[in-house]
Amino acid sequence: MKKISIVIPAHNEEDNVVLIHQRVKEVFAKLKNYTFEIIFVNDGSRDQTQAKLEQLARNFEEVKFIEFSRNFGHQPAVKAGMDLSTGNAVISMDADLQHPPELIPDMIKKWEEGFDIIYTIRTYPKQISAFKRKTSTIYYKFLSAISDVNLSEGGGSDFRLMDASVVGVVRNMNEADIFLRGLSNWMGFRRAGIRFTAGERTFGESSYDLKKMMKFAFTGITAFSVKPLYLAAYLGFIFSVFSIFGYGIYVVHSFITKTEISGWASLIMTVVFFGGLQLIIMGIIGIYLGKIFKQVKERPNYIIRSKNF
User: E.C. number, please (predicted)?
Assistant: First the structure.
């Protein structure tokens, strides 16, 4: 019998961990040729998530838990579960039940066909705002255009299956800002996609605010490409040529008309514009320098406070 490891990060999900365990168990009750383990990763929860996980672990042998010393983030939590998994394949999914466990048999079927990575292509239900759907689509298209990975539309979900051989590659990676959505594409292997409609969060509220989403977006962009640095260089070159050309026109005009062009407002606006442009370029360089700074310190992606296996 083959073993499937289910990795579920949990941050303040006290009301959801029991439900998702029950639904996963119901799915595997119908899969007679597979055993499973559920590895919950408590990512610095401040509610009763840890107490619920310890209770589940006492009552069900398939339930494992990892408790972080603090909140390290969603991606390190997924990696921690992968690092300690023992299955022939690993499925990562969220604890809020937006990733339907009922899709697991379809993922396993694709895996048995010989694919190493089964990713999911998320579509949103009608009740999700058009703004969220549009911004998500724009982000992944922009990420694909500006980086060296190609995330298909809707394919930026952390609901995926990886063969044990792929998980072994992930274990050996020690990136300071790990971005598994991009890594699963960058590694190659044989891949297949399955579409699903995201469910609604059953309990609680998402901890992903605008600040975290923006940080996640910059992590994805800078983790797989230096194109932003080239873009900064191209902008500098273009505006330098433009300024030389514009100044030439000014000199010619002054000699022909024997007058000077006045315009303090346009001058100030030009100074402000180029000053802002320089700050943007310095910010881009600073992000990459910051990533190098964090990488060379070689601090771990996460610290485990306790676990039951």
Answer: 2.4.-.-
Cα separation, 203 vs 13, in Å, equals 8
Neighbours of 225 (CB within 10 A): 17
Type of residue numbered 118: I
Condensed to tens digits (0 to 9), the pLDDT of residues 132-141 reads 666 666 766 7
Residue 7: the pLDDT is 96
Strand partners, 35: 3
Domain boundaries, the chain: 2-225+299-307
CATH architecture of the domain with residue range 2-225+299-307: Alpha-Beta Complex (3.90)
Element (H, E) at 84: none
For range 105-126, the mean pLDDT: 86
CA 193 to the chain's CA centroid: 17
Rg (CA), the chain: 25
pLDDT in tens, 179-196: 777 777 778 788 888 887
Nearest to 261 by CA among 273, 276, 272, 250: 250
Cα separation, 175 vs 198, in Å, equals 29
Locus of tokens 């809707």? 154
Cross-strand bridge partners of residue 170: none
Tokens of 293: 């700074």
d(CA 119, CA 155): 7
Mean pLDDT along residues 208-237? 64
